[in-house]
Amino acid sequence: MVQYRYLSICICTIGILLFNFVKAQNYNYDTLSFNPARLKNIFRENDAECTSVAVQNDGKLLLAIDDTTRNFCIVRLLPNGNLDPSFGMGGIVYINFDGTASFTIAKANIIKVLPEGGILIAGEVHETWPNQDYYFGVAKLSFNGTPDVNFLGTGKMLVNLGLVPTENEEPMDMIIDGNLIYVAGKVGGNMGVCCLNAINGSLHSSFDGDGIRIISPTDFSGSSPAVCKSLLLLNDILYLIGECNLGSGYNKKIAVAALYKTDGTSYTSFASNGYFFGSTLGTYDNFTVSDAKLDTKGRIAITGFRGSPYNTKNFVYYLKTTGIVEDSSIITLTNRFRNLSKSILPDYYGAVVFTDSLLYRVEGLKWFPKLQLPSQPPRFVPKNSFVHQNRLYCYGYCMSSFIRVPVVYRFTILKQPDVVLKGPDVVTELSTHRYSIENVRGYFTISWTVSGLTGIQIRNTFSNVVEIGFPKDIVGNITLTCNLDSASVRVATINKKIKILPLRIVGPTKVYTGSVQMYSTNVNDPYPENYQYSWSYSGTGTLLQEEDISNPLLYFSDVASSGTLTLTITHVSLLESKTLFLNIAVSDYNPVPRSILGKQNVGERRIEFYSIMPKDEGLFYLWKYQPYAKNFTDTVNIAINKGKEISVYFPHNAPSGRLKCYIFKSELSLDPEMVELLSSSIDLSPIDSVFLPIKVIKSRDDLSALLEVPVCEAEPTSCEDVFLNDVEIISKKVKKMNSGCMPGGYSDFVGIELTDTLYLGEVYKIKLKAGGRKSTNAYYGIWLDYDNDGNFNQPHEMLAFSTLPDSMHVTDYIVLKNKNEYSGNVARLRVRVQADSVFDASEFCPKLNTLSETEDFMVVLLQRENLDVPNFITPNNDGKNDLFVIRGIDPEFNNELKVYNRLGNLVFSAANYENNWSGTDMKGQVLEAGTYYFIFTNGKSSKKGFFEVRR
């Protein structure tokens, strides 16, 4: 009992290891699997193995057992693994074949379930001395395990296939085809197959005249022996698969014979007159076949091992039903003798290969990592496996202390992942693209079709990767369909809508003199070598390009003229050409990015000053205020509405709106009478415009509503010795203060003193000027209330601080945090100066009787909705335009920046760009002044164009 208890524990350990492996490989171990310890004492000699398993429609398992009792032993289990008491004697049936001698040896090799519920068993039967006759034994039982008396009256039959009675005969496989039974195996040194009537057990005489067909080694041009290991049936053809010796020693080759199922004659269209003999896996042949099945592509999949007894290598071999080798794979699994590959499963999850205590999964020719089961005790020795109703059954025996115990494992196959069709949704005419099916496991018949437009070229239509060509003048929508079929059953149909756009030239149609512009096509093909390009320009611009380049640079000098850019593009694979045209208008006006400086949030009854930046000479400006309110009758007074700088008075009840500045090339455009007089002969329309949104603050309540937090009370401090004169976010004036300290050393912002909007993810520098009664140099600290709680107690809320005192400070670059780190759109910016020491993050509040001053400003924090890129940078470290700052970067997506020179060469690139590039190449060398081209992608957003490096 101690021995069997230890055995049971080991078997449970095996089940756990198998579960962990197959779960990762798309199989789940079924905990209801048969426990081999349940059968350990029921067999007469307490030593047995499971040789075959079948599953009934009700889920019960039938086991053929070799228990050395000289009888066929059949066991039926309930779905939970217990013995079925309604079958035979407590779940077990013994079938005895009486011989002419004192006793007969019988062993069941194969068990099958008939459609009507009957049970067929085939195995080897031979009598002992003196007769020693060998037979194929076939028995038929009713559903409850009693002999079927219609089957030769006794429910069993002996078939002698040998040329002489003493030759060894052993059935290896059995197929049921309607009312016919085909049993195949080895007959002495030959392959043999017999055809029986499933109803009465008689030999079917139309099959080779007597119901028996013998295939000798000479049929394969080999020598003895020839052995059949597996029997397959496809399209009325029987395939006998095994091996045959060629000469003496270890020189066995794979042997396959094809016969018509109706009469047993050779199917001569297979290989050489119906016989395949050989291999292509190496120069040294010694193949032992373990199993063969038909896969879902209709191929014969063969597994086994090759090599000498001391150097075995396992193989998987794929043979078309015409006898042509398609694929083969070989892998060294072990060096131990007789480590046979036991089974290959042609389900859509690939193959499962057993080799003693090793379990592999194979997809196509890819072998996945093995599982090593415990070797002693017990050692699991598999016999075979099969799939039934989405479950995998593996059976054999475990060996412990020289005692064999039957084992059946059951696994549930997990659902195949969703099939995905990959490839672009939008393409252009005159292009080719690849589409592929992914997450497909196993072997399918794959076919592709295109509908919606004619003339589409499609290649490799029976592969999982297809190439589609979109010829010239094909524009519209098509549907690409992939059909997956398995064993004549539709598995999946996947559709993809594809939009085909017309081919065109991409680039600006309005340009200015002294600029370099890049042009390209909108073709989006992953294989640029498929194209040849020929560019020309009819104006006086200079085309800078290499041979067959797809994106040339066009230089417009001071005397350049308008013209037509022409491209002839030829697709090498499609053998199609197309000529494209783009009309370009050249102007001597060089547009630059402009902005209006001045307060965005203003108060009533106040005068505010605004100016245009940059202040270009030779241009003229006209200002207008456009109220948002439709019925507003009063006028916001612009004292002088012409010029680079203006003053605006906002009266009582002034509405919010926008201040707009129009830019003209001619001063005549500012005179309405001249515009009306000359409009027909001279173009007096604006060449550019820019606007600034204005919010008019009505009261302190409006400010509190924007702030969303109460205003803090200040603690009394002394600022006579040190105070703030001026605070400026470079390029954005925050607040101009009178010289001298504020009362109490602390100043909160008031309703109309609002900072310009700051944008998250962008970089800023802050300049501070400090003063004092004794001209004391000061330290500074700057905080931002990200969480908008009226406090600055989070460590990351300290933006900057000085380590040395000075009367004027310029901070390093400050990058505002991403939008997920602040609450609301309005926050406090706190600036502090003090005379005696460096600030730390905890000193954000004014302290009693300190020599310091503290200023709070309101800042509006926004995330730009669209990407905005500068037209120039001036990397001279003055805090203005030093860096290439891309505004509106969305932090939720990755981004990439690439910069090219005028010759199209890549000079700089960065993934997840952080607005920190100052005009150097990838080696850190300073780039020369000039025009450069950039491409920036951020999630689904992208931006490209030209900018200047000015030095």
List keywords for this structure.
single chain; about 950 residues; mainly beta; 6-stranded mixed sheet; 5-stranded mixed sheet; 3 helices; 70 strands; about 45% strand; elongated; disordered N terminus
Mean pLDDT: 77
Strand portion: over 45%
Tell me, briefly, the overall form.
elongated
Helical fraction: under 10%
Q: Which structural category do the helix and sheet elements fall into?
A: mainly beta
Distance between the termini: 93 Å
User: Count of DSSP E strands?
Assistant: 70
User: How many strands, what sense, and barrel or not for the largest sheet?
Assistant: 6 strands, mixed
The helix tally amounts to 3
Low-confidence stretches: 1-41, 332-350, 363-377, 703-711
List the helices and strands and how they pair.
Layout: H1 2-24, E1 27-29, E2 49-55, E3 61-66, E4 72-77, E5 92-95, E6 104-113, E7 119-127, E8 134-141, E9 156-159, E10 169-177, E11 180-187, E12 190-197, E13 212-215, E14 223-234, E15 237-245, E16 252-260, E17 275-278, E18 287-294, E19 300-308, E20 311-319, E21 325-331, E22 351-355, E23 358-363, E24 366-367, E25 371-372, E26 379-388, E27 391-400, E28 403-413, E29 420-422, E30 426-428, E31 431-438, E32 445-451, E33 457-459, E34 465-470, E35 476-486, E36 489-501, E37 505-506, E38 510-512, E39 515-518, E40 520-521, E41 531-537, E42 542-544, E43 553-556, E44 563-571, E45 576-587, E46 595-597, E47 601-603, E48 606-613, E49 620-627, E50 637-638, E51 645-650, E52 657-664, H2 672-678, E53 688-697, H3 700-707, E54 723-729, E55 732-736, E56 746-747, E57 758-759, E58 763-764, E59 766-771, E60 779-784, E61 798-801, E62 808-810, E63 814-815, E64 826-834, E65 852-862, E66 872-873, E67 895-900, E68 906-911, E69 930-938, E70 941-949
Parallel strand pairs: 30-36, 38-45, 47-53, 56-65, 57-65, 66-70
Antiparallel strand pairs: 1-28, 2-3, 3-4, 4-5, 6-7, 7-8, 8-9, 10-11, 11-12, 12-13, 14-15, 15-16, 16-17, 18-19, 19-20, 20-21, 22-23, 23-24, 23-25, 26-27, 27-28, 29-31, 31-34, 32-35, 33-34, 35-36, 37-40, 39-43, 41-44, 42-43, 44-45, 46-48, 48-51, 49-52, 50-51, 52-53, 54-55, 54-59, 58-63, 59-62, ...
